[in-house]
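Class, carefully examine what follows:
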Amino acid sequence: MVIGDKVVKQSNLMAYVAVATDEGKASNVHKGWYSLYTETNSDSPLTTISARDQVVAGIQKQVAAYKDEELSIAFDGHSMGSTIATLNATDIVFNGYNKIPDQPDKAIPVTAFCVACPRVGDFGFSKVFAKLTNLHVLRINNELDIVPKYPFDIWYSDVGKELKVHLHTVAGYQGVFKPFELVINRDKALLNKGADYLDDKYRVVSSWWTEKNKSMVQNDDGTWELKDSEEDV
């Protein structure tokens, strides 16, 4: 079943990704991301085998070759590529491709680092994802980027953990309903490195990161300070 031509039921997806279950039948993933992951194209020598089958074969080969070592599996991707990384990581864990053949009780941890990742599936998909162990997804997003909010339809849901690239806020965030408090030395001058966020009282010029840094000088402790005149001797 296709919803609005954008998502495909997990029962169809699981022809490649997993065995369909009663719970899985209520899960959906984006049809476009799914097709990129599973389809082939005979017009190109690079796509006669699907991305899914190429990666699975490669992982099985590497796991067999290095089964006596401490292993981990990592995927990364940007934007549309990060949706494939998410599907790939989920596929590997769901189907047990992260397990060593003669050590079925030992699972290799799988992680996907996804930069500006659109949403992959609905709430049902996120429930399946959340129940998988040894699977981690870190979504790395810029605060004002709209791509991670796509598709905008309300039935889509995020998976994994999100890291918003707003380092000054991250440095002082203590949790929901707790006051902002800097506990590490995150130099406030960095807020104006390429912008104009700080009040003039802090005496940090805007967009100072140029060839000569507009008289901003780095101190021995790593902080930056405006030194636009000679000090009195």
About this structure: The first strand starts at residue 2 and ends at 3.
